[in-house]
Write a structure and sequence with these properties.
The structure is a single chain. The protein is of the alpha/beta class. The two termini are 17 Å apart. It has a single domain, classed as Alpha-Beta Barrel (TIM Barrel). The protein has an 8-stranded parallel beta barrel, surrounded by 5 helices. The protein has 12 helices and 8 strands. Helix 1 packs parallel to helix 2, helix 5 crosses helix 7 and helix 7 packs across helix 9. The protein binds 1,3-dihydroxyacetonephosphate (13P).
Length: 248
């Protein structure tokens, strides 16, 4: 497979800078897999401490959100220029928690994706359905739409370089992982819709991750699926279990 695997931790709102530093130093020693790209997406306030702590390792540092403007009167927001300068190379965009609690729409997600790409930060674009939507049978339609809107305005070359993360909302933080078949079905649908809009060759290059209760036990089976190129890991990325997920 051409696509390099990516295992990304999303710490969410956890770990202070000093806790983060300590944890990353331990994690460094526990990683043995050199084939997968390893990323930790940390709270903004931790970025500097973590960037220093990962030096000398292959662990990359990402952010969990950013604003779609570069600077100005946007109290409380973080600019892509600031993230870049602090050592960030990836940014999670449109996580379901941001969509649900901070009212991020598909259109806002699209603006952020375009700005991240313009600034050379790789967006990890999150899509996924709620339990209600799954039970209604609209998962694939919904995820196709979320993907199309999020990527609108990117070129084929840019789409080949971004990352999409399929995270079913009902699987996040619940311990209820999607089965590898369920995850594969939706990740394949995402690759298909990318292929329809940007061409098959592009779609073969875009990395698609699965997220939602990934742990040291279920990661290997999920990551073995044809259209799953790694994971976006929440809870388990705050423990040394994250190294087991990477090493598998
Ligand atoms: P959990 O791994 O804790 O379910 O969280 C998944 C997630 O939201 C990653 O972005």
């Amino acid at each position: 497979m051409l696509r390099k695997r990516l295992v990304a931790g999303n710490w969410k709102m956890n770990l202070t800078p000093s806790e983060a530093k300590k944890f990353v130093s331990e994690l460094k020693g526990a990683l043995i897999n050199k084939d997968a790209e390893v990323l930790v997406c940390v709270p903004d306030i931790d970025i500097t401490a973590v960037s220093e702590a990962v030096s000398g390792s292959d662990i990359k540092v990402g952010a969990q959100n950013m604003y779609f403007e570069e600077k100005g009167a946007f109290t409380g927001e973080t600019s892509p220029l600031m993230l870049k300068d602090a050592g960030v190379c990836y940014v999670v965009i449109g996580h379901s928690e941001r969509r649900a609690y901070f009212h991020e729409t598909d259109e806002i997600v699209n603006k952020k994706v375009l700005k991240a790409v313009e600034q050379g930060i790789v967006p990890i674009v999150c899509v996924g359905e709620t339990l209600d939507q799954r039970e209604q049978g609209i998962t694939v339609d919904l995820v196709r739409l979320q993907t199309k809107i999020a990527l609108k305005g990117l070129t084929e070359k840019q789409v080949a370089e971004i990352v999409v993360a399929y995270e079913p909302v009902w699987a996040i933080g619940t311990g209820k992982t999607a089965t590898s078949e369920q995850a594969e079905e939706v990740c394949a649908a995402i690759r298909n819709v990318i292929g329809e809009v940007y061409g098959k060759e592009t779609a073969e290059k875009t990395r698609i991750l699965y997220g939602g209760s990934v742990n040291g036990k279920n990661a290997a089976e999920l990551f073995a699926m044809e259209n799953i190129d790694g994971g976006l890991v929440g809870g388990a990325s705050l423990k040394l279990e994250f190294a087991d997920i990477v090493n598998c």
